[in-house]
Design goal:
CATH architecture: 3-Layer(aba) Sandwich
GO molecular function: DNA binding; DNA-directed DNA polymerase activity
Shape: globular
Organism: Pseudomaricurvus hydrocarbonicus
Protein name: DNA polymerase III subunit chi
InterPro entries: DNA_pol3_chi, PolIII_chi_sf
CATH superfamily: DNA polymerase III subunit chi
CATH class: Alpha Beta
Number of helices: 3
Number of domains: 1
Structural class: alpha/beta
Amino acid sequence: MTRIDFYILPDSAVEQRLTFACRLAQKALQAGSNTYIAVNSAGEAAALDKRLWEFRPESFLPHDCEGEPALQSPIAIGFGDDCGDHHDLLINLKATIPEYFSRFERLAEVVCQDEGVLTQTREHYGFYRHRGYPIKSHDLRKT
Protein backbone atom coordinates (compact mmCIF):
# COMPACT_ATOMS: atom_id res chain seq x y z
CA MET A 1 0.00 0.00 0.00
CA THR A 2 1.25 3.47 -0.89
CA ARG A 3 2.67 5.42 2.06
CA ILE A 4 1.53 9.07 2.06
CA ASP A 5 3.66 11.91 3.47
CA PHE A 6 2.44 15.49 3.82
CA TYR A 7 5.18 18.11 4.10
CA ILE A 8 3.77 21.32 5.56
CA LEU A 9 5.90 24.33 4.68
CA PRO A 10 5.82 27.60 6.65
CA ASP A 11 5.86 29.73 3.49
CA SER A 12 2.84 31.00 1.60
CA ALA A 13 4.78 31.32 -1.67
CA VAL A 14 3.76 28.59 -4.10
CA GLU A 15 7.32 28.67 -5.57
CA GLN A 16 8.59 27.19 -2.29
CA ARG A 17 6.74 24.00 -3.19
CA LEU A 18 8.98 23.67 -6.25
CA THR A 19 12.14 24.15 -4.22
CA PHE A 20 11.00 21.61 -1.66
CA ALA A 21 10.08 19.15 -4.43
CA CYS A 22 13.64 19.52 -5.72
CA ARG A 23 15.00 18.70 -2.26
CA LEU A 24 12.82 15.59 -2.02
CA ALA A 25 13.85 14.46 -5.50
CA GLN A 26 17.51 14.94 -4.62
CA LYS A 27 17.14 12.83 -1.45
CA ALA A 28 15.37 10.10 -3.41
CA LEU A 29 18.09 10.15 -6.06
CA GLN A 30 20.78 9.82 -3.39
CA ALA A 31 18.88 6.84 -1.96
CA GLY A 32 18.73 5.18 -5.40
CA SER A 33 15.02 5.74 -5.94
CA ASN A 34 13.29 7.14 -8.98
CA THR A 35 10.88 10.06 -8.70
CA TYR A 36 7.93 11.27 -10.71
CA ILE A 37 6.80 14.84 -10.07
CA ALA A 38 3.21 15.46 -11.15
CA VAL A 39 2.28 19.03 -12.07
CA ASN A 40 -0.83 20.65 -13.58
CA SER A 41 0.45 21.93 -16.92
CA ALA A 42 3.29 22.26 -19.40
CA GLY A 43 4.00 25.71 -17.95
CA GLU A 44 4.43 24.32 -14.45
CA ALA A 45 6.60 21.53 -15.83
CA ALA A 46 8.84 24.11 -17.52
CA ALA A 47 9.14 26.11 -14.28
CA LEU A 48 10.08 22.98 -12.33
CA ASP A 49 12.50 21.92 -15.08
CA LYS A 50 14.26 25.27 -14.70
CA ARG A 51 14.24 24.98 -10.90
CA LEU A 52 15.87 21.53 -11.04
CA TRP A 53 18.73 23.06 -13.06
CA GLU A 54 19.18 26.04 -10.73
CA PHE A 55 18.19 24.63 -7.36
CA ARG A 56 21.72 23.85 -6.19
CA PRO A 57 24.60 25.40 -8.14
CA GLU A 58 26.96 22.61 -7.07
CA SER A 59 24.77 19.73 -8.20
CA PHE A 60 22.77 18.51 -11.17
CA LEU A 61 19.60 16.48 -10.86
CA PRO A 62 19.21 14.39 -14.03
CA HIS A 63 15.62 14.59 -15.16
CA ASP A 64 13.21 14.31 -18.05
CA CYS A 65 10.26 16.56 -18.74
CA GLU A 66 7.05 15.45 -20.47
CA GLY A 67 7.00 16.64 -24.04
CA GLU A 68 10.76 16.24 -24.49
CA PRO A 69 12.55 13.12 -25.70
CA ALA A 70 12.76 10.73 -22.75
CA LEU A 71 16.24 9.79 -21.61
CA GLN A 72 15.05 7.44 -18.87
CA SER A 73 16.35 9.70 -16.12
CA PRO A 74 15.65 8.79 -12.49
CA ILE A 75 13.58 11.98 -12.11
CA ALA A 76 10.67 12.80 -14.40
CA ILE A 77 8.27 15.73 -14.53
CA GLY A 78 4.85 15.22 -16.05
CA PHE A 79 1.41 16.72 -16.38
CA GLY A 80 -0.43 13.98 -18.26
CA ASP A 81 -2.00 10.68 -17.34
CA ASP A 82 1.08 8.48 -17.80
CA CYS A 83 3.88 8.29 -15.26
CA GLY A 84 5.95 5.88 -17.34
CA ASP A 85 7.96 3.26 -15.48
CA HIS A 86 8.33 5.26 -12.29
CA HIS A 87 7.02 3.63 -9.11
CA ASP A 88 9.21 4.63 -6.15
CA LEU A 89 8.27 8.21 -5.21
CA LEU A 90 5.47 10.38 -6.55
CA ILE A 91 5.62 14.06 -5.61
CA ASN A 92 2.16 15.42 -6.26
CA LEU A 93 2.01 19.15 -7.01
CA LYS A 94 -1.23 18.79 -8.97
CA ALA A 95 -4.56 20.25 -7.89
CA THR A 96 -5.99 16.73 -8.22
CA ILE A 97 -4.85 13.28 -7.16
CA PRO A 98 -3.37 11.42 -10.14
CA GLU A 99 -5.20 8.19 -10.97
CA TYR A 100 -1.90 6.30 -10.98
CA PHE A 101 -0.86 7.31 -7.44
CA SER A 102 -1.42 3.84 -5.93
CA ARG A 103 1.28 2.24 -8.09
CA PHE A 104 3.93 4.18 -6.13
CA GLU A 105 5.57 3.04 -2.90
CA ARG A 106 5.51 6.59 -1.53
CA LEU A 107 3.55 9.72 -2.32
CA ALA A 108 4.57 13.18 -1.10
CA GLU A 109 2.12 16.05 -0.95
CA VAL A 110 3.83 19.41 -0.49
CA VAL A 111 1.70 21.96 1.35
CA CYS A 112 2.37 25.69 1.52
CA GLN A 113 0.28 28.32 3.28
CA ASP A 114 -1.42 29.55 0.09
CA GLU A 115 -5.22 29.30 0.48
CA GLY A 116 -5.70 27.48 -2.83
CA VAL A 117 -3.01 24.92 -2.05
CA LEU A 118 -4.32 24.44 1.51
CA THR A 119 -7.81 23.72 0.20
CA GLN A 120 -6.55 21.22 -2.39
CA THR A 121 -4.24 19.36 -0.04
CA ARG A 122 -6.89 19.17 2.68
CA GLU A 123 -9.16 17.46 0.16
CA HIS A 124 -6.32 15.12 -0.78
CA TYR A 125 -5.72 14.29 2.89
CA GLY A 126 -9.40 13.40 3.35
CA PHE A 127 -9.34 11.22 0.23
CA TYR A 128 -6.34 9.20 1.44
CA ARG A 129 -7.57 8.94 5.04
CA HIS A 130 -11.05 7.82 3.98
CA ARG A 131 -9.47 5.00 1.96
CA GLY A 132 -7.21 3.84 4.80
CA TYR A 133 -3.80 4.87 3.44
CA PRO A 134 -1.06 5.31 6.05
CA ILE A 135 -0.44 9.06 6.36
CA LYS A 136 2.38 10.89 8.08
CA SER A 137 2.56 14.67 8.43
CA HIS A 138 5.85 16.55 8.63
CA ASP A 139 5.13 20.03 9.97
CA LEU A 140 8.15 22.09 8.94
CA ARG A 141 6.65 25.24 10.44
CA LYS A 142 7.92 24.06 13.83
CA THR A 143 11.59 23.77 12.87
